[in-house]
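Q: N-acetylmuramoyl-L-alanine amidase, please. Structure only.
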Amino acid sequence: MKNILKKLLVTSLIVGPMLISNHNEAWAYDEELQKIDSRTRILNTYQTPKTDINKFTVVIDAGHGGKDSGAVNKNLNVLEKSLNLDLAKVVENKLKTYGINVVMTRTEDKFIELPSRPALANAINADLFVSLHNDTADGNGDGSHIIHSVFDRNGGISKSVATTIGNSIKSNTSQNLKKDRAIWSRFFPNKNNLDYYCVIREAKMPSIIIEHSFMNNNDIKAVDTHEKRVVMGEAVADGIYKAINEHFRGWVKDKGYWKYYDKNTHIQKMGWINENSEWYYLGQNGRMKTGWAKISDKWYYFNQVGKMQTGWIKTSNKWYYFMPSGEMKTNWLSQGDKWYYFMPSGEMKINWLSQGDKWYYFMPSGEMKTRWLRQGNDWYYFMPSGQMKTGWLIQDEKWYHLNSNGQMETGKVEVSNIIYDFGQDGIMKEEKN
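A: Structure for N-acetylmuramoyl-L-alanine amidase:
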């Protein structure tokens, strides 16, 4: 663990008594960090708070803390971690007046391992994760900017939330939005399937980072007093509340996955839902299932838009059958006067099937064969039950004999010490001693 914490702070610099983190690199992807179990992080960091499952839950993350000061304005002796915490408390208090359930990653000046923050949100199945920050003191940057998931850049919930909050900041504070990138996202270098920022990447719900201001002497004026932070924090909270009401309704795309939110409570749905007489299943983290899904030890199949399938389905060049309940069929199936058989895998059986000492045959259509079947030069006969016949068979007052492999006999054949003569059509000609 010491080595991992060292990696988290590897880009930090000590300036006098204060710790200054490189603001971007502190959020970078680390292969070793991914190996830490999320539950372990939670147990080591938090006593997981109980939440009201009947309320929309927002996790508010005050960035940095403790020995990690974040960005620093040395001229004004202002630490980012302190601004973030004060803003977080304002946002928390305002959201609670709206009846929103709020969980804080920290409520005091405390260092918290970075991956533990989204891990907390995942553990309590939060509906939204918002990380509060202020950007570097270097340079002349100005204006608020908000970061969302790269997977929502062409339309998705985190970008919509970021835009709504940005508009609230612009309308309700003296702060402008950053001109060149007010609402934006970032891929991790050379990993186009990863968000750059840890709290966005690891959170299993919509997640954003708000940079309220830059920490330089000019832009910090937007949040340099508690009174200004109250104005800013309440604008953020108002934006969050508006985003909840506008965007968390019905089907929502989050980081490339479809989720469903109750249209009245805005709470994320889990498990089975029925929408317009169609069934869908929301699995781990509320993500809509497509393709195969094992639910309560039963298999189901969902098409590309998530609808549960029933009846006949062909996938990977194999046929399956799903009951009206959606459950995949195995074993025997009767449809009208036709019988089919499905293997334990659900695959429709064709060709030969052995069950105990009984043999059956299924046509390419899957239909169980009855009566005569020719394969190559051999003829077989199947009873109305589908069972392959062996021994004597009488059909239309004509006698046939089928050997132990089910093959129709022709020519002279000894049966029970008696020789019989069968024509090429299998019909017994005469009996000889």
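A: Brief note, in case it's useful. Confidence is low (pLDDT under 50) at residues 1-36.
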